[in-house]
Amino acid sequence: MTDVDYCVIGGGFAGLTAALRLKQAGRTVALLEARDRLGGRTFTETRADGSWIDRGGAWIGPGQERIRALMQDYGVPSYKQYTDGEAMMLVEGKQYRYTGTIPWSMSPWVAMNLGAALLDLGHLCKSIPLDAPWTAEQADRWDRITLAHWLNTHVVSKAAHELLETAIAGAYTSAASEVSLLFALYQMASGGGPGFVLGIEDGAQDSRPVGGMGAIYRPMAAELGDAVHLARPVKRIQQDADGVTVFSGKTTVRARRVIVAVPLAIASQIRYEPLLPVDRSFLHQRMPSGAIIKISFIYDEPFWRDDGLSGQSAAPGSPATITIDACTDTGRPGVLCVIVEGPIARRIGQLDPAERRRTILDALADRFGDKARTPADCIEQDWSAERYSGGGMLSHAPTGVLTQFGHTLRTPCGRIHWAGTESSAVMCGWVDGAVRSGERAADEVLEQDMVTASGSPANDRGAHRGNP
């Protein structure tokens, strides 16, 4: 048995940050990661030629100060996402080239619908209290309807509807009919509104770390040293009046408190003794992840740039739904990233790998020409098939979940504390949100133990079944 001050479960950015802050505070910590690698829903692969591919989360944007603080700590610079040239939209068999966020080259009717819908969503987002979205004035009404319902009743143009559903629901890697409107508004509001979520320059995909996300999480792990334990899936957490015991195969950790920093669907696979409070247990059951496949096609050079294209494209319903230039800071080799989400990802994920690649390359050739058909290499990551991710980059809330169970997202359950991007009131769904959640959870456990050490009773309500 390993005896430490604190145990952290999960080696993504939330868990790594929590463990790092605790160690920096002079505490002993054990971090248990189920995979044989770190990074969680980020995953940087370094190639033989020194180039790198981010197989998961990759981008950073304005306002994401906490991930940038880590980059500064470890001397990791950033570089701007390539946006020179025209982007493409493919709707109803027609191709439109444009610059900026809205494809004004489409019909005025479609463009006006898009612009009006984004303005409406931005206005609604401003009414969401980020710390407690379930207390918004219209929370009950918005949590009874789906994002699909709102789009159906507010966006008249079919083309505009398809584009918005692809752009917004894609963040949740699920169909718009699966996502509560309240959750969609909250998630967008946590980043500053739909303009940030959908934007490239000065938006959520403004920049990337040089070296990929691995350039950040690897030195974090190095600083933690032998506190990190890989291939340790946690099976059971048992808490008592004096501490917690965490069971992971042959490894057992005894600690004062534990921080669980894994996706909600994965947290539900852990056995808790005593049982978690009912509302927290139900939250685990009701916030699933969606489907996402991220495929990086590697070419000798980014030929689309020479053709006056940015590499960014969107085609609702296509097996290559979204593309983006994913080159490193040097621009060589050329990397064109295809992101497929939701029902389409589930569908093409069932294809034979060779057929899936052929289908996607056909779609790319229609968009970028025959050069797209002959990549030098292809790296595919199906997050839906990741045992310890449970699906896409963000767990989402269907209707009724936030208003009923959202209050448990951050509330400790006795000596069990929670981290993960879904629990962050700011930048929920981004790597920055994961970092913020890890810092919050670390502060929580340190504060609780300071209260205990001072002789005041610690607030460990919620450790037993049925407590709120």
Word description of this protein:
- The protein has 3 domains: 171 residues, FAD/NAD(P)-binding domain (3-Layer(bba) Sandwich), CATH 3.50.50; 144 residues, Polyamine Oxidase, Chain A, domain 2 (Alpha-Beta Complex), CATH 3.90.660.10; 92 residues, Orthogonal Bundle (Guanine Nucleotide Dissociation Inhibitor, domain 1), CATH 1.10.405.
- It is globular.
- The chain has 468 residues and is of the alpha/beta class.
- It has a 7-stranded mixed beta sheet with strand order 8-7-17-18-19-16-20.
- 34% of the residues lie in helices and 19% in strands.
Key terms:
single chain, 468 residues, alpha/beta, FAD/NAD(P)-binding domain, Polyamine Oxidase, Chain A, domain 2, Guanine Nucleotide Dissociation Inhibitor, domain 1, 3 domains, 34% helix
Describe the structure concisely:
GO terms for molecular function: oxidoreductase activity. This protein has helices at 13-24, 65-73, 108-125, 139-144, 147-154, 158-169, 181-190, 194-198, 214-224, 264-267, 278-286, 303-306, 342-348, 353-368, 401-405, 431-453; strands at residues 2-3, 6-9, 29-32, 44-46, 52-54, 78-80, 86-91, 94-98, 207-209, 228-229, 236-239, 244-248, 251-255, 257-260, 271-273, 292-299, 309-314, 322-325, 334-341, 377-382, 416-418.
How many helices? The count is 16
Q: So what's the oligomer here? A: single chain
Number of strands: 21
The number of domains is 3
Principal-axis shape: globular
The largest pleated sheet is described as:
7 strands, mixed
Span between N and C termini?
A: 32 Å
Strand order of the largest sheet: 8-7-17-18-19-16-20
The residue ranges in which pLDDT falls below 50 over 5 or more consecutive positions are: 461-468
Give me the CATH fold name of the largest domain: FAD/NAD(P)-binding domain
- Computed CA radius of gyration, to the nearest angstrom: 22 Å
The helix-and-strand class reads alpha/beta
Provide mean pLDDT, rounded: 94
Write out the CATH superfamily name of the largest domain: FAD/NAD(P)-binding domain
